[in-house]
Design brief:
With about 130 residues, the chain is α+β, with helices and mostly antiparallel strands. The chain contains 3 helices and 11 strands; from the N terminus they run ββββββββαβαβαβ. It is globular, with a radius of gyration of 15 Å.
Length: about 130
């Protein structure tokens, strides 16, 4: 998407950080990591950190996790569902299991703490974090 501002154009790209980083803080609808901030939800994958169009009120579907299932090098997926724990549907759990992902669903805060520990231990972890 390109927005024109006089003689300068601003290009808006999909949010992406090309690396792995622990989450330093969260709240106010976003996250801080790697000396940056991001407003909205995130997918934390071995290939990088991506903006994720998922809100607390949105249904978690198999399509919600398509990028995660396409990623290599992931064995564990932590799903931070916001302030409250929301269980994944049997269909979604089956799809993630078929992709050989062990999944744990928890509040976003708990998912961040667990992700940071597993990342520090160099474990094959990914996280899907809904912003709070």
């Amino acid at each position: 998407m390109v927005f024109g501002f006089g003689d300068k154009d601003v290009v808006v790209r999909d949010a992406h950080f090309p690396g792995r980083a622990p989450i330093d803080s969260y709240g106010n609808g976003g996250f801080r990591f790697a000396d940056m901030s991001h407003k909205g939800s995130l997918l934390l994958l071995p290939s990088g950190i991506y903006g994720w169009e998922q809100g607390e009120d949105d249904d978690l579907t198999t399509a919600s996790f398509s990028r995660v299932m396409a990623e290599t090098g992931v064995e564990f997926l932590l799903v931070g569902t916001g302030r409250q724990i929301k269980l994944l549907s049997p269909d979604v759990r089956a799809s993630l299991k078929a992709a050989k992902l062990s999944t744990d669903t928890m509040s976003t805060g708990a998912a961040i703490r667990t992700y940071n520990i597993m990342l520090a231990e160099s474990r094959p972890v990914a996280a899907a974090l809904i912003a709070v």
